[in-house]
Amino acid sequence: MTKTQSLVLSFKDDISLTEQEGQLFLQSSSRPTMPLENTSKGLQAVLRQLSSGATEEQLMELVVQHDEEIGLPRFFYFLQKLIQAGLICHTVVWNQVRLATIVPVSRQYQFRLNEPVADQPYLLSRFAYLHQQQKQWVLESPLAHSKMLIHDWRATALLHVLAKPTRLEELCREFQELSPTTVSMFLSLLLCQNALNQLNENGKTEAVPSLVQWEFHDLLFHAKSREGRQANLYGAYHRFEGQIEPLPVVKPPMSDTIISLYKPDIEALKQNDVSFTRVIEQRCSLREHGEQPITVEQLGEFLYRTARLRKIMGTKQRPYERSNRPYPSGGACYELELYLVVNVCEGLSSGLYHYSPTEHTVEKLTDRTRELEKLLEYAYSAIAKQGKPQILIVLAARFQRVTWRYNGMAYAAILKNVGVLYQSMYLVATAMGLAPCALGGGDSDLFAAAAGTDYYAETSVGEFILGSRADL
Ligand SMILES: Cc1cc2nc3c(=O)[nH]c(=O)nc-3n(C[C@H](O)[C@H](O)[C@H](O)COP(=O)(O)O)c2cc1C
């Protein structure tokens, strides 16, 4: 068997060939209908055959049958165009068993077949991963513009062995039931998908400088939450509409112990507040707090100026409620809930509180607990123990507010919203003469335990320390 005989070409699943008044069209769910003009009888036969699949040899035979050998150069040119357009899948087959199929997922996809060398070891890329999708294994990688559907357990077994450095000849010995051509072709497809690395004499992969510092999960999140090398739905699709009710814009009260907060006079502040430029220029992170703690009145003013709810929007036509608040939020989802872990605050006992942005009140959830001590200890360490935080504000996301609305970008949007709120908090704290400091990390399991939330429904995505200034 030749190498090309182990490779079957076919149209991607979402592509169909239609015919109108003798003219052929390629139709796809993801791109405009493409008319196929001036196609010879041979090329038309090729197009029809590609719907079910054929090897390159079989396609060439069809061309010769209809157009004679003179039709072959045009066929090769035409096939290249279809491959470059990302319309063609390649499947490794062995004894009529399909092992794996490489499917283009982006416009930058390029199909290049490199032969694996016999005497050098190969190792799966640390960025490649397998997951179950529509009841089959799919191999993906944030380095790839394609995905690989795994059809047969022998392909999974080959991947298993390639998790350790392995030479082609060793693989062929281990998988004697497969032909060496098939094994080699499988490796070629993995190379084409950037899922396999050839190791050098020192047993190392050639380091790509720009990849060295990427962690797997960071690069995967980046690739999947941006458009480009992925074909998932991306944007505001409301894919659960009619099946799942969207969460209300305001979280219902969490306890009966409700404390009203001080409301500042916004009109007076508009006239007399510190200038915007002074706030921007003086803003800095302050990690030490004053001996005189922040007061509940200051806390009330801070929350009113950063996070209160000004208006609810939502119509019969657009049942997804949205709101308006002092800080912006992607899609006006306003999924972020503010929880206050109060260590010391004049006029407010220590414990855990939830902020109600509509009522401008806090609901007391618990007194000081072991979990709250741990959250405060974590925050203290995150600022290199420069000062004990007076108040730790935890930003928790009600994830389904965003996942109901957005595809592909929901978690990325939440983290952007955290950044936006951080900046508003910094600016308001600076204008009020308070000490602000954002934190880069926190324990979301610990927070869920402290607040009694379901980790998958609502937990922490950001933390912010607030207190009185030590230098005033
Ligand atoms: C997203 C984010 C995360 C941060 N995480 C921490 C942190 O975990 N610990 C800390 O001490 N400071 C943290 N900071 C504060 C930065 O260290 C600080 O903004 C930076 O050093 C610039 O200093 P400045 O804020 O005083 O201008 C964070 C700031 C941001 C915006």
Gist of the model:
It contains 15 helices and 24 strands. The chain has 472 residues and is of the alpha+beta class. A hairpin with a 5-residue loop joins strand 3 and strand 4 (34-36).
Topology (elements, then pairings):
Blueprint: E1 7-11, E2 15-20, E3 23-28, E4 34-36, H1 41-52, E5 54-55, H2 56-67, H3 72-84, E6 88-94, E7 97-104, E8 121-124, E9 129-133, E10 136-140, E11 146-150, H4 153-162, E12 166-167, H5 168-174, H6 180-192, E13 196-198, H7 209-212, H8 216-224, E14 235-236, E15 258-260, H9 266-272, H10 276-282, H11 296-307, E16 311-313, E17 322-324, E18 336-342, E19 351-356, E20 361-366, H12 370-382, E21 391-398, H13 399-403, E22 406-407, H14 410-432, E23 434-439, H15 444-451, E24 458-468
Antiparallel strand pairs: 1-5, 1-6, 2-3, 3-4, 6-7, 7-11, 8-12, 8-13, 9-10, 10-11, 14-22, 15-20, 16-17, 18-19, 18-21, 19-20, 21-24, 23-24
Bound molecules: flavin mononucleotide.
